[in-house]
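Slide 14.
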Amino acid sequence: MLQYIGIPMGILLGALGAIFFGQSLGPDPGSEQERAENAEHQLRIAEAELRRLQGSRIRADRQRSAEGARDILEDIREGRGADIDDIFAVTKPWLNDLSPVINLMRSKEEREQFARLAGDYTRKYDLNESQQTQLRQWLDARASENAQRFVDVVADDSSTIYDLMLAGKEAEQNIKGIDQFMERQLTGEALTSFRADRLQERINSVEGEANGRLNNLDSIVNLDASQEDQLFFTMARSSEDYIPSMDIEGMDGDRSALDRKGRNVAIESILTSEQQELLESHRQNRRQNAEEEMREIGLRLPENWQQFEDDDW
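Slide 15: predicted structure.
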């Protein structure tokens, strides 16, 4: 579970630490502390509205007091574990203050990555000066949009930590739309070469992802050769990069894409009853391990914890 918490939780816990530190000192007039207390007052108002709108998600068995940060600390000290969404709600004002800096850091990192991509495309497809300029402008716009996702989630009173992590995952797919853009720029042999390169990249990604998931499942239930063949194509069809027109060696029959639910139904239809029991036991053990990992850092495992993971095995 920890690998899915990552940087977002580091930011939240760091901001929460800053809150506790600020509460331990008396504010000077006009100081950062005084401004923080004013922000906390605004947070109390926001929390009241948040409880009204999200009562089913925020703990219904007790009222969140105006001392939200101290409630979280008490949960940790008493061994109950803090709710991730409670931490996120309390730290949103501070994350809002930090978001311009985080935004700039993310944009800078992506622009460096995009500069390498632009150089690669320029060499491969012999882009002229106008095409290079348009490509850099398109990539710069993507970097800004990707960075803005974080700001939008933090500014949304109803957003959850899952929304924050989902925004990070979406930003990783940071050149979505590049195929359509490049196809408008290229012609002739360059266009043909680009399409072939991109299709092969997607095939490699799909096959690598399918092999990885298949190996993980095999280590749990000990698949036979026939099952491996069937499940490889099932895993491939569930990849986000998969398209039915791909030429994947040996794939016959249904070539339609599968979502996560459809993939899992197909997997269970191929496994024997004994293998299904092994898989279910593994899922339960993973949940227990995830609970222990969260408890070690003073947190409670969210009820929807499986949303944070790509697979449930």
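Speaker note: The longest helix spans residues 84-125.
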